């Protein structure tokens, strides 16, 4: 009888995920955090990180991801811990709120992204900035000087999001706008410092005494807020002077938000920061990781360039493109749709280097995940796009290889993977609204650059590391040698 009793007790006992480490281990591995989590995921698939304040569960299991993002969506959200951690920078934007606040912003943003006027306007802006970057590359090719593409691409995407989102010519690419440079430095540093809060349990003490990383964060946020509130004021004044039906009120996203009744400057500020975070960093980081991977795999770079040439109807006699602006006109929507291999190569880059490498959700009530592991109310469940892109149980033994072909069928047509396996753009109700917007900008940018230039690493032995931020930025410069692309198309 005692034996039977013990067995029944054992069956009722809750199952918990294995302990992979502690917050202290994460902190000491902070500069290689994603490698650390990937190593643990390769051993455990799903594991627990001990936190004396609130345990955290990390997973690479697509069934768990689908459960928290879709099946039991209402039980997993940002919650007070994540909101309090991010709020100083992101405010009450869509990335930090739940419930009605989230639904309202989601609805408004979805409506804006669906408009043809935004698509047309953004296409013009993307091409203009790609031409500006190409002109910089052209000068570098003539002088045989290396170019830091991390800085260049970040400036370009900043200019793009400020023009498309807010109707402002930030002109970072010219290098003459000190305000723009100051904003970008403050934004990137604040991004890194706010993420540090996840791993440094002393951050609230530092904030209280205004010391250490929290003092630096406060200074950076002040720079960001001063510039953004001035931007909002300037935009309001411009709209007062404009006629009701002018294009000024129709093109950029900020103008349309400001036409809402009783809108508070703080609400608009939070929306602007959200759009900057979503529209600047992920696209820039994806583009420079993409160029890096093409430099490491020159045969794939040539294959992408060949497809671009064919899609834009360039003659085999056009061995060198002398007029970049004229070539950019060939990069039409129809041409972009033909670039299936380019789309696959970009997606393969994002698989290995997803802009959002960790995505935490708060459990609102006790639950059991599909793998049988229990989750307590208030615990964080974190799925890991970076680690998931490197799991052999998901992608096969060649998971670490850069292989665009894995996304193409036998006819060379792109086919997406399950969003619960390829999680770079989230899934379920929180699927990234800007996914198609981002792909379109990346394809316009890439096709113009790779149609005109060939790239190789200035230092082929250098292996770039990342900064642990909300998005996966390369830590430091990445210098590329540029040459005008010609000769490879001869048949």
UniProtKB/TrEMBL annotation:
Keywords: Heme, Iron, Metal-binding, Oxidoreductase. Transmembrane segments: none annotated. One of its GO terms (molecular function) is oxidoreductase activity, acting on paired donors, with incorporation or reduction of molecular oxygen. The keyword Iron applies. It comes from the Eukaryota. Heme binds at residue 432. Its cofactor is heme. The keyword Nucleotidyltransferase does not apply. InterPro entries: Cyt_P450 (IPR001128), Cyt_P450_E_grp-IV (IPR002403), Cyt_P450_sf (IPR036396). Belongs to the cytochrome P450 family. This is Cytochrome P450. It comes from Centaurea solstitialis.
């Amino acid at each position: 009888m005692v034996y039977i009793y013990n067995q029944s007790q054992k069956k009722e006992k809750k199952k918990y995920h294995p302990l992979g480490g502690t917050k202290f281990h994460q902190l000491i591995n902070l500069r290689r955090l994603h490698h650390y989590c990937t190593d643990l995921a390769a051993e455990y698939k799903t594991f627990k990180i001990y936190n004396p304040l609130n345990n955290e569960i990390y997973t690479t299991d697509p069934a768990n991801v689908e459960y928290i993002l879709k099946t039991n969506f209402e039980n997993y959200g940002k919650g007070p811990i994540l909101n309090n951690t991010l709020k100083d920078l992101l405010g009450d934007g869509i990335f930090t709120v739940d419930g009605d606040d989230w639904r309202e912003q989601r609805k408004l943003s979805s409506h804006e992204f669906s408009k043809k006027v935004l698509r047309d306007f953004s296409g013009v802006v993307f091409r203009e900035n790609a031409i500006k970057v190409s002109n910089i590359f052209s000068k570098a090719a003539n002088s045989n000087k290396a170019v830091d593409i991390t800085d260049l691409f970040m400036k370009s995407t900043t200019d793009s999001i400020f023009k498309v989102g807010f109707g402002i010519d930030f002109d970072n690419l010219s290098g003459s706008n000190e305000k723009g440079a100051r904003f970008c430095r403050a934004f990137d540093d604040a991004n890194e410092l706010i993420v540090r809060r996840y791993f440094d349990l002393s951050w609230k003490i530092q904030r209280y005494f205004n010391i250490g990383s929290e003092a630096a964060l406060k200074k950076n946020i002040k720079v960001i807020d001063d510039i953004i509130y001035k931007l909002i004021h300037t935009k309001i004044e411009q709209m007062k002077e404009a006629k009701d039906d002018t294009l000024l009120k129709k093109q950029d996203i900020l103008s349309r938000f400001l036409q809402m009744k009783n809108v508070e400057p703080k609400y608009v500020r939070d929306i602007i920061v959200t759009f900057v975070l979503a529209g600047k960093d992920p696209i820039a980081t994806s583009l420079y990781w993409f160029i890096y991977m093409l430099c490491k795999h020159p045969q794939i770079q040539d294959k992408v360039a060949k497809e671009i040439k064919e899609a834009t109807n360039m003659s085999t006699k056009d061995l060198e493109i002398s007029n970049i602006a004229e070539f950019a006109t060939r990069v039409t929507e129809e041409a972009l749709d033909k670039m299936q291999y380019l789309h696959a190569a970009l997606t393969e880059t994002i698989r290995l280097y997803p802009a959002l490498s960790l995505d935490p959700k708060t459990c609102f009530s006790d639950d059991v995940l599909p793998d049988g592991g229990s989750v307590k109310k208030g615990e964080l469940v974190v799925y890991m796009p970076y680690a998931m892109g490197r799991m052999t149980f998901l992608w096969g033994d060649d998971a670490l290889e850069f292989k665009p072909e894995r996304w193409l069928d036998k006819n060379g047509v792109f086919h997406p993977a399950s969003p619960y396996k390829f999680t770079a753009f989230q899934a379920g109700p929180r699927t990234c609204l800007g996914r198609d917007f981002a792909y379109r900008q990346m394809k316009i940018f890439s096709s113009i650059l790779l149609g005109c230039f060939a790239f190789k690493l200035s230092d082929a032995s250098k292996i770039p590391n990342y900064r642990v931020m909300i998005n996966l930025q390369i830590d430091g410069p990445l210098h590329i040698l540029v040459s005008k692309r010609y000769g490879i198309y001869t048949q």
